Each structure stands twice: as structure tokens, then as C-alpha cells.
Amino acid sequence: MPVVDKFCYLGRILTSDGKAEDINSRIAKASSAFGRLRHRLWDDHGIRLDTKISVYVAVVLTILLYGCETWTLYRHNIRKLDQFYMRCLCRIAHIQWKDKVTNTEVLQICNLTGIEAMFMTAQYRWVGHVTRMEDTRLPKITFYSELKHGTRSHCGQLKRYKDMLKTNMRACDLPFNELENLTADRSSWRSAFKKQVSDFERLATARPRIQL
């Protein structure tokens, strides 16, 4: 088999440097699914908003966030996902830019959380599964592995999955050095990260921005 820098596996684009190369592909696929429901659902004023949101979450968001548990995201990646997410919600709720409605108000109207909070929740859930796996499982071996040989570049370093996880856990006030102890009990870990992500979302929405 040829050695390549990236390839598609089970709908995901995997790269040799760990970058989230499939975000554009995910957005394109989700946008296509959203567009096919335009006349039949989004533009139909006879259908309740909560019904439209339920379909959006089940059809469009599942396509957009497929495999997000293993993404290594930079801030510009999150902004791109958030822009698409908010455009869809504004279209569903028939909110125009001239209405001067903030992102926070749009989320409240649609009764949804922000895209970053959704990503964190999915990531924490998956990390909990991995840390509870047997030591012989390949995902756990990969998660705990370190390069034996190699050099760091002279310029800025590429973000690793663990770097992003540490950043997110600090933002949610979850101690990374106690990750294994926190995830050992499934129900306790689920309750803990859901509460902390909720607090993160509440603090984030305390700084409203005008929807563009």
C-alpha cells in the first residue's frame, strides 16, 4: 500500500500531522443536508420551531460533528464551525442580520448550547471511554503513546490532541493530572463534565456578541 499524507477512512479524513482536515468536508456535507430541507421544512411557517430544531439536531448536526471527538481544533476551526452553526439557526428561526439579535439570544430562542460546548461534551465523553479501556486496546495505546525519537521545529509547534484536551479541561476547571481518577466512574465523570461545560457555556454567553 502506498504511503500518503492523508486518506479517508469511515467518512473521516485522517492526516499524518493530526490536523482536522475534514472540517471543510463536514461543513459542506452538513450544508447540503440543510439545503435539501429548505423548502420542505425551514421555510414552512406551519411547522413549530422546536420541531425544526429537533430535525436540525438529528440530521444536520450529526453530519457536521461526525467524528469530532478526535478532532484537534484551533481557534479558527471553532470559529468556522460556529459561523455555520449560527447561520443555520438564524435561518431556521427566521432571524436576519438587521434584527440585531445576539448569538446568545439566538441560542436561547432555539434552546441549544454553543457549538464549542457540544464539541467539549463529545470530547470528554470519548476520553472517558478511552481511559477506561483495557491497556491492550489500540485507542488507549495511541492516546498514551509518546514519540521515542524526533525533533521539535524551530517555529511554532503543531497542536497535539492532548494539548487541546488540556486547554479545554483548564477552561472547564477540570484537573488534567487527575483525568484517570475522574473518568474511572462513568456516571460521576458524566455528571462532572456536564456541569463544568454548562458553567463554561454560561460564562461564555455572559459576553454577548452581535450576530453578523
Total helical elements: 10
Can you summarize the main beta sheet? 2 strands, antiparallel
Instruction: Specify the helix fraction band.
Output: 55-70%
What string gives the helices and strands in order?
A: EEHHHHHHHHHH
What does this structure look like?
With 212 residues, this protein is mainly alpha-helical. It folds into 2 domains: 6-111, no CATH class; 121-144 and 158-204, no CATH class. The protein has helices at 23-36, 38-42, 49-64, 75-92, 103-110, 115-131, 138-144, 161-171, 179-183, 186-205; strands at residues 6-9, 12-15. It has a two-stranded antiparallel ribbon. Helix 1 (23-36) runs antiparallel to helix 3, helix 1 packs parallel to helix 4 and helix 6 packs antiparallel against helix 10 (186-205). The chain is globular. Mean pLDDT is 86; it is low at 208-212.
Short summary of the structure?
The chain has 212 residues and is mainly α.
Q: Which helices and strands appear, and what pairs or packs with what?
A:
Layout: E1 6-9, E2 12-15, H1 23-36, H2 38-42, H3 49-64, H4 75-92, H5 103-110, H6 115-131, H7 138-144, H8 161-171, H9 179-183, H10 186-205
Antiparallel strand pairs: 1-2
Helix pairs in contact: 1-3, 1-4, 3-4, 6-10
